[in-house]
Amino acid sequence: EPEVTQTPSHQVTQMGQEVILRCVPISNHLYFYWYRQILGQKVEFLVSFYNNEISEKSEIFDDQFSVERPDGSNFTLKIRSTKLEDSAMYFCASCPGVAYNEQFFGPGTRLTVL
Amino acid sequence: GEDVEQSLFLSVREGDSSVINCTYTDSSSTYLYWYKQEPGAGLQLLTYIFSNMDMKQDQRLTVLLNKKDKHLSLRIADTQTGDSAIYFCAEIVGANNLFFGTGTRLTVIP
Fold it and tell me: Are residues B94 and A56, on separate chains, in Cβ contact within 8 Å?
């Protein structure tokens, strides 16, 4: 069964460094998402992406964040200058279409900022 | 803004039924979802209900929706130890973005 994959499973970085989190959505899906979950808290929407551009973003998704689909298979989340409070689990999700009612989630990347 | 509330913890004995409750605020949500998160894993969609339905049953899972009170519940019949996980309710906001509740940690006691 096709699934969303994410790499790495765990990323440790120093404050101020740039990180890129990678996701491979399910092929033929059209909508892509990033969510994050700070330890012990709820899962929060960051950004949605469709047709090579951002569809919606939350107030969390500030200028430090960017997303890209560089090659038609990968979907990346870049954090330019990480802060301690960026430490969280980051989940990628994909969806076949907006009328479809399931987003398929990846296993997540745990980002630790020291 | 949106707010989705759940109680944080629930403990049940194996074989009993579990009922996990959720209240939400966005009355325009078309779909409401229940996701399961096992330790160290991603989010798995368990079931969903369309907003014009009152109830949906799927094997051991029963979802009840009270639109007037904006209350959603998930009942798990014959709860098993493998059901121990965090359960999130979620509603659709915006174009197709999920807004999650705080999550309920279900512990099943053998």
Answer: yes
Please, are residues A32 and A5 in contact by the beta-carbon 8 Å criterion? no
Contact indicator for A26, A3 with CB cutoff of 8 Å: yes
pLDDT at B2 over 80: no
φ/ψ of B82, rounded to 5, equals -70, -10
For residues B32 and B23, is the Cβ–Cβ distance under 8 A?
A: no
pLDDT tens-digit series, residues A53-82: 999 999 999 999 999 998 878 999 999 999
- The DSSP output letter for B82 is G
CB contact under 8 A, A105 and B48: no
Asked if B88 is an interface residue toward chain A (Cβ–Cβ < 8 A), one would say yes
User: Measured between beta carbons, which residues in chain B are less than 8 angstroms from residue A55?
Assistant: 95-96
